[in-house]
Amino acid sequence: MSPQSLLRQYLLEHKWGYLLSTLAIIASEFINVQFPNILGRFTDALSAHRLTYHSVAVYALLLLAVGVVYVFFYAIGQSQNGRAARRFEYLLRLRLFEHWELLSAEYFRRRSIGDLLNHAMNDVQQVREALSGGFNILTNAIFLMLATLIMTFATVSWKLTLLSMIPLVFIPFFIVWMGPQVRNSSRKVQEALSSMSELAEESFTSIRLIKATANEDVESARFERRVDQIVGEQISLFRKSATFQSVIPTASSLSFAIALLYGGWMALTKQIPLGSFVAFTFYLGQLAIPLQQIGMVINNFQRASASLIRLQVLLDEKPGISDPSEPVTVDAIHGDIRVDLDSFQYADGTVAALHDVHFHLRPGQTLGIVGRTGSGKTTLVNLLPRIFDPPPDSVFLDGHDIRSLPLKTLRESIAYVPQDGFLFSATVRENIAFGDADASEDAIERVAKAASIYDDIMEFPDGFDTLIGERGVALSGGQRQRTAIARAFLKQAPILVMDDSLSAVDMETEKRILQGLEDVRKSRTTIIIAHRLSAVRHADWILVMDDGTVVEQGTHQDLLNQNGLYATIYAMQEKGEASAS
Amino acid sequence: MSTKESPVRPKPGVSSLGRLLPFARPYVWQFIAVIALVIVFNTSSVMQPYLVKVAIDNDISTNHPNMHGLVVIAAIYVGVVVIGVAANYMQIMVLQRAGQSVIRSIRLALFRHIERQAMRFFDSRPIGTLVANVSNDTETVSQFFTNFFLSLIRDGLSIVMIVFAMFRLDPRIACYAMILVPIIAGVSAAFRGQLRRRYQRTRTLLSSMIAFLAENLAGMRLTQIFHQEKRQRAAFERLDAQYRDANITEYFTSMWFNRTLELLGNVAVSAVVFIGGNAVLHDAIKFGTLYAFIRYIQQFFQPINAMTQQWNTLQSAVVAADRIGQILQHEPEIQDKAETARVDLDAIQGRVEFEHVTFGYKPDQPVLRDISFTVEPGQFIGVVGATGAGKSSVMGLLTRFYEPQEGIITLDRIPIWDYSQRDLHALIGIVQQDVSLFTGTVRDNIRLFREEIPDEVVREAARVVGADGVIERLIHGFDTQLYGKGSNLSAGERQLISFARIVALNPKVLILDEATASLDSHTEALVQKGLQAVTENRTTLVIAHRLSTIRHADQILVFDKGRLVERGTHAELVAQGGLYAKLDAESGIESRVIS
């Protein structure tokens, strides 16, 4: 659903709340304008010497009542709008998150996370601001102005009102014109500030070099230029905001002077009573506010609608990979994998990332994949769980094209260890049990042992309850990988994919993990991507990849006999191992 | 670290801001001008209701209405407002210019002071903290010199002037009005505390939501493979809802704060009408006076509220000023002597001698013990040993980043602490393992932004080390911008630029600190030529990672656990059959495998 229609629907669903808040604000403003009116009548009564102690008290109480009731009504409107806007903000952000969960890796490849966060935070907040403050102010401005005009027309003089308003009507235009300039200036100040911080960081990081080359003065001259830039931008910002702060009171006071002159003349020639004149000076103050507000609201709405459009574009992105329209239902996946791929190309790519890959893996077999960085190993295994979508009829699981299986069935049948050992900022336990929140304590410990991470975990301050990530314990690369392996082991899936997930563990641990794997391997189809051949030499079948295609395949012995790339790498690594030990 | 050293240090007080006042002294006239301008502006604000009062009492509501007087009053009114606005404009510009200049001086002083510190200062402080001191803390302090100062003057004077005007008009009613002062201040203070707490809670929840979102966007692939979309969505929903609720609470608090002040204002006006109305009734005051009172009461709220707001500014400014002050008070551990040796830099030969040098980063844990050696001008010296044997400390001492506890280090027979640091560092150059590159062009990175080094020298330096080919292949050659500390270059290219830099700066003594350790064998071959060019005609100390780089050294120093255990040429040391011979035997296998 688009943000516009989401907004429309939200407003419709909450129409009674919005009606209430609008009515409350309207009521509050019509009450508010009684304030000058009462003061005016009080003045008239006073100057006519019609007042008694009792009636003074009545006027004072009337003013008090107006003051209290106005504040009360306005608060009702304001709180309803503020709450509703924040609830919409919540919905919109949740909607974004749900949408992102549907989008494929293809999409995230093209986006920076910072950019996406910007949408989820700033754009959503911008919409909320328009809906909360903007809505309040707009309703308030319109009806305060309306109420004031009605009151002044009815009780004072329409000629006096219109004449006095002349300088005020320029205020909204001025704000709409000036507002973006002030915003632009303040953005430049921010940029100058961060440019200075960057330089300071660069300098302090390189302090050894700067000292060793006696370059302190050159460096501080560079710093000085950035600081001067800030001063320049700040002054330009202040010049604009000072103009802002000068023009508005000048316009207000001009209009007050007109009221004083013309209204005073009317009062002294008895065209209007003194009370009306007094009341009018207060009304004028009330008129200036909504005119300023209208200018601000226009700016606010402009920004919000730009944000809404950006969110629209974001939510219009169609999920690249979804369930087939007529999924094949299967009871159990056995893990027979057949790849018959002629060519695969990334949506944003210009050349095929993979071509001519053909192999067949029976249930329970192990496949090893080796090759240089960038040879297409990861791309190949990413096709299997449809992280990237293969062309139709090129990847088969148990004889079915994977594109015809329900995503749930497909992905539940694959346990995957990513290359980077990605973990969440949660406890060790939560990370291992990521695929199955109900896993038993025993199961978690068992897989931790199988992945050779158990002893490490026991050394952490809180064992399995240790928080990892920025706010907790920082794991080494090897520990991350082994935790990710435990996580994949826990998922009782017929297929296990390990994408170069042993690169950061030492040879000894690698051996132990592979042995642990041996026990479960029998029942699982396993794919291991590795740099070290020791991790794949016992595999049933080995693919050697280069430049997006399979250049050699066979068993370890076959490949050695072929005396090709595999044999060369093997020879080099054997020697390396021999000399290292 | 300083925070650990002094847990009993008194809490930062306003005096910490006082220590920064000298930076403001040159602008004292500007600040005085601001006070004068504020007085003009405030007078204009206070006069406006008074002028209306005069118009009402003298011209409109009298037995002899006076149109001429009304015109005069209206003209004066406009004049007063224009003068007020002009004064306000000038006040903003003068104050901000002065405030910005003060902050500029503080920033520069702070940056230069940090640069002058010895290495030990940087060892114990995270870079991020120092950057925050220079950028954020100074920014916070600038709030003090502008917003706080202004509020104190403008709002303080407003209150005084309004009170004064009210007492002039009618002391009795004015006395009643004074009841408002503690009420407004109390309500503001109470709400401010609440507001700050709620605001902080909202911020905390917002940042944990951002963190969750950032992590989940990065790990979305994993969530999808493990089919945990529902679970992650539920987790996000919880954070989103928590933030929503906190935000609504914060919004309500701030709304009720504003409404309460408004309510108080309305109550106050009705009280004035009651009290003043009766006074008019008894002819104690004229109606115009009551009118002015109502206006003044309305004007009364803004400055009191604004001043309580500044309380927060003051608190954070004090904390920031304290952090800045602590750095400025920290005298650099290593400073030039009052009388430094006057040397002709060109005449320096480059003879280096260590005499019985003992050094530890902590005085009781020496990492170098009783080290003595001599390097003759132009010699090529290798320094070897296991990690932690003390090799790098030799470099730190020779460059005077640290000072030894015992012993003497000389350059051309003059102790290095008799040189000015500027001269010493012009004479001694280093090339480090991780190359420091700056945001700027390749040219500026080679000449380190020194305008006095001409383009020909830069190009020649690049040519000598064999970097010219690499640089010419970049999009804009020597004008190519390097971003993010040179992440658009390969490790080998970065190292070549640092070699070119050394040639351009032309020091007499050169220290290479494991300069090629992180390079693969292909890249190492690429920079080898540059390395040779750099070491020619200079005294060179190589802190070696691979023995192959120093095999042909004039002398090899072997360090073990802080002691100099062997010295001699490669052949001599191998013949000795000691530690070096053992290291050499091991590395033999290593180098054969690599090549």
Q: Which regions of chain A are unreliable across 5 or more consecutive residues at pLDDT < 50?
A: 576-581
Counted up, domains of chain A total 2
Give the count of structural domains of chain B: 2
CATH architecture classification name of the largest domain in chain A: 3-Layer(aba) Sandwich
Biggest interface, residues from each chain: A-B, 127 and 124 residues
Globally, the shape of chain A reads elongated
Stated plainly, the CATH topology of the largest domain in chain A is called Rossmann fold
Number of helices of chain B: 20
Give the rounded overall mean pLDDT of chain B: 85
Q: Overall pLDDT of chain A, averaged?
A: 86
The rounded distance between the terminal residues' Cα atoms of chain B is: 46 Å
Relative strand content of chain A = 5-15%
In brief:
The complex is a heterodimer of chains A (581) and B (595). Chain A is 65% helix and 9% strand. By secondary structure, chain A is α/β, with parallel strands linked by helices.
Itemize the secondary structure elements and their pairings.
The complex is a heterodimer of chains A (581) and B (595).
Chain A: H1 3-13, H2 15-32, H3 34-47, H4 53-102, H5 105-110, H6 113-156, H7 158-165, H8 170-205, H9 207-212, H10 216-268, H11 274-316, E1 337-344, E2 354-361, E3 366-371, H12 377-383, E4 395-397, E5 400-401, H13 407-412, E6 414-417, H14 428-432, H15 441-450, H16 454-459, H17 477-490, E7 495-499, H18 507-521, E8 525-529, E9 541-546, E10 549-554, H19 556-562, H20 565-580
Parallel strand pairs in A: 3-8, 3-9, 6-7, 7-8
Antiparallel strand pairs in A: 1-2, 1-4, 4-5, 9-10
Helix pairs in contact in A: 2-4, 2-6, 3-4, 3-11, 4-6, 6-7, 6-11, 7-10, 8-10, 8-11, 10-11, 15-17
Chain B: H1 2-5, H2 15-18, H3 28-60, H4 67-116, H5 119-123, H6 127-169, H7 171-178, H8 180-218, H9 220-225, H10 229-281, H11 287-329, E1 352-359, E2 368-375, E3 380-384, H12 391-398, E4 406-411, E5 414-415, H13 421-427, E6 428-431, E7 440-441, H14 442-447, H15 455-464, H16 468-473, E8 481-482, H17 491-505, E9 509-513, H18 521-535, E10 539-543, E11 555-560, E12 563-568, H19 570-576, H20 579-594
Parallel strand pairs in B: 3-10, 3-11, 6-9, 9-10
Antiparallel strand pairs in B: 1-2, 1-4, 4-5, 7-8, 11-12
